[in-house]
Structure formats: structure tokens, C-alpha cells
Amino acid sequence: MAEKVRTGRFVVAVDGPSGSGKSTVSRRLASALDARYLDTGAMYRAVTWAVLRSGADPQDSDAVAKIAGETELTIGTDPTAPHISANGTPVDAEIRGPQVTAAVSAVSAVPVVRQTLVALQREIIAGAERIVVEGRDIGTVVAPDADLKVYLTASADARARRRSAEYAADVTATAADLARRDRLDSTRAVDPLQQASDAVVLDTTAMGVDEVVARLRDLLEGRVTA
């Protein structure tokens, strides 16, 4: 017998560091619940792509803020085919490249960038009946009233292995890059990566995707009335 698909309005906030399983779990959960899916990290990456394309220095906060204000993002929230465009240009592949990855933490730390994108994220959430949102500040900043807040984590080794396999990269170099991004994202002055006080923490080191999704569905079932 097929599982009952959850109905009714809800917001699920999924936070955590890179490699913890946020994207795969969030997309799978959204599909299982017939919900929309929003990858907020892709939005910061798209602005970073625009900054790099313009030739601006990602460390120049004034230039970054100006470009963020001029960049129009179009975000598709279908969990089976999410996509993002910047000023009409599809950038799904480009934003996952090493140059964007190296610069996204600096761009994301600019207050104007965060203010602009958080406002857009809240607009998207408000327009959705059911949505799963992933990022680094969803439960604490973007959607503090989410029906379910989850903080996914995993060991440093597991995260590095997952990310290196995803991008066919060297594990040691990937581990160093993840540690760098963790440090920058957790210590930035505005909206740092952190666990919401009322979030459910799941260590996914030894958990499969299906197991994590099933756990989240059980948690949501207990918090949302159909």
C-alpha cells in the first residue's frame, strides 16, 4: 500500500553544513510530500556567479551589494527539476563550479546580499502551499516559524567523501575546502550557520537517504494536522 501523502499547508526548514545530505534529502522529502523545494544556497551561488561574471572582486562588499541589487533571479521549485537563472541566463551547472564555490562564502557574508535574498526566499515560501527549504539559516532567520526545523550533520570524513564523489574531486582537498567554508559560514557577522534551538538534529553519517526521509516524514506527521 502506498504511503499517504501529507496534505495541508506546511514549511519544513532543513539546515546544516555542506555534505550533510541537505539537498538530496530535501528534494526527496519534497517529492514524497507533493511539496515545493527551495535551495537557498543556489540563490547565493547565482549571485556569486553574477559577481564573478562582472569581473568584480567578491571581497568588495560595495560592488557585490550593487550587483546583487541588479541581478534578477528566477527560481524553479519543482523538486524533480529545480532550476535557477540569473538575468535570464540558466546557471544550474555554472554555480556548482570551483570558482563559484571558492567565492560564495565571501559574497554570502555581505549584509545587503543576505537581506535581498532572504526577502525573496520569504516571498517564495509565502506563495507555496507546502514547501521544503534548505540552507544554512532557514530555521533561525528565513522561516523561524517553520512547522518542522531540522539540522542535518555528519562526520567531517563522511561529508568530504560525499562531496568529493559528487564532484569527482580529491577527498583531501574537498575536506580542506569544507572546513574553510564551515569556518567562514559559522563566523560571519550576519545570519551565520547555526542550529535553531528548537531544531531536530540528525547525524546522517551512518544513515541512508531513505532512512532520513522516513524519519522526517514521521516527525512532520506528529507536528502538522492534515
Count of domains = 1
Strand order of the largest sheet: 2-6-1-7-8
* Percent in strands: 15-25%
- CATH fold field value: Rossmann fold
Rg, Å, rounded = 17 Å
Uncertain runs are none
CATH architecture heading? 3-Layer(aba) Sandwich
N-to-C order of helices and strands: EHEHHEEEHHEHEHHEH
Whole-Å distance between the termini? 19 Å
Given helix and strand content, the structural type is alpha/beta
State the major sheet. Answer: 5 strands, parallel
> How many runs of DSSP E, i.e. beta strands?
8
**Can you give the helix content as a percent range?**
40-55%
> Would you identify the CATH H-level superfamily?
P-loop containing nucleotide triphosphate hydrolases
Number of helices: 9
Report on this model:
This protein is an alpha/beta fold and 226 residues long. The chain has one domain (10-221): Rossmann fold (3-Layer(aba) Sandwich), CATH 3.40.50. Helices cover 49% and strands 16% of the residues. It has helices at residues 22-32, 40-54, 61-70, 98-108, 111-126, 138-142, 156-167, 171-187, 209-221, and strands spanning 10-15, 36-39, 73-76, 83-86, 89-90, 130-135, 148-153, 200-203. It has a 5-stranded parallel beta sheet, sandwiched between helices. It has a 3-stranded antiparallel beta sheet with strand order 3-4-5, covered by helices on one side. A hairpin with a 6-residue loop joins β3 (73-76) and β4. α3 (61-70) runs parallel beside α5. The model has no long low-confidence stretch (mean pLDDT 90).
